[in-house]
Design goal:
single chain; 281 residues; alpha/beta; Rossmann fold; four-stranded mixed beta sheet; 12% strand
Length: 281
């Protein structure tokens, strides 16, 4: 926020009347000794025994089925970059209240001070008994692809990476509807992307699944065009979209483009580039 008054309003919102945006509230009455005896010892043992007898009973006797873990290591917080696990906590609390407000889902936000993807996978996988689903948030690429992929293979609960899947769903919906509006065939359009992080590559993956030919996609990032043979800032997920070309800059590949995806910094696409795009972009 550039406006000082808006910034202060945001800080006040987070601090008062109670620091933070979330709290734990009991879903059962706790007004007398019997309530406490049912909630904890000795009554809680009955619920434990039923889960031992049949693990699916965890959804009858605990909140697991409505509990999501919003998990981040703070390495790629939107607009802020790698600010670390601790500083990412306000963002994760914010995602928690969105889950509650718009979907009725409860959330524990968990910020993990770990940047090694294999270690991060081990930590998150160890939390499976707690949650009904995992929402990964603000983990930088390309590590985020490894973490998400390995967790989906290991865990028996849904694993969703918001920066990948949430963005991809929204962008792909707009892409399909936009093509209908201008009357263009998905098999024929040229797509140029600025940005090759988690969001951009997930969008492109889904668009390919929807019918966009791989050869119609041109990816650019901070190092320029993603081309065959490039070694700087490359990884297997990005290399999938490498083009055989001598072009090295966005301005050199934007010509004739039908679609531009801006998933990097602002102001990258210049007016003259828009003018060079195809008809009805």
């Amino acid at each position: 926020m550039n406006n000082p008054s808006d910034r202060q309003a945001a800080l006040d919102y987070h601090e008062f009347p109670t620091p933070g945006k979330i709290s734990v509230v009991a879903s059962k009455p706790l007004v007398n000794q019997r309530d406490l005896a049912l909630a904890y010892s000795p009554g809680v043992a009955a619920a434990c025994e039923e889960i031992v007898a049949d693990p699916s009973n965890v959804y009858r006797y605990t909140a697991r089925g409505n509990l999501v873990g919003v998990i981040s290591n703070g390495t790629a917080v939107l607009g802020l970059g790698n600010i670390g696990a601790l500083a990412s906590k306000p963002v994760m609390e914010g995602k928690a209240v969105l889950f509650k407000k718009f979907a009725g889902l409860d959330v524990f936000d968990i910020e993990i001070n770990e940047t090694d993807p294999d270690n991060l996978v081990e930590i998150i996988a160890g939390l499976e008994a707690t949650f009904g689903g995992i929402n990964l948030e603000d983990i930088k690429a390309p590590e985020c692809f490894t973490v998400e992929r390995k967790l989906r293979e290991r865990m028996k609960i849904p694993v969703f990476h918001d920066d990948q899947h949430g963005t991809a769903i929204t962008v792909s919906a707009a892409f399909i509807n936009g093509l209908k509006v201008v009357g263009k065939d998905i098999k024929q359009v040229k797509v140029v992307t600025s940005g090759a992080g988690a969001a951009a590559l997930a969008c492109l993956d889904l668009m390919v699944d929807l019918g966009l030919p791989l050869e119609n996609i041109w990816v650019t990032d901070i190092e320029g065009v993603v081309y065959e043979g490039r070694t700087t800032l490359m990884d297997p997920d990005k290399a999938r979209f490498a083009q055989k070309t001598d072009a090295r800059k966005l301005a050199e590949v934007i010509g004739g483009a039908d679609v531009f995806l801006g998933l990097s910094a602002g102001g990258v696409l210049k007016p003259e580039m828009v003018a060079a795009m195809g008809s009805r972009p």
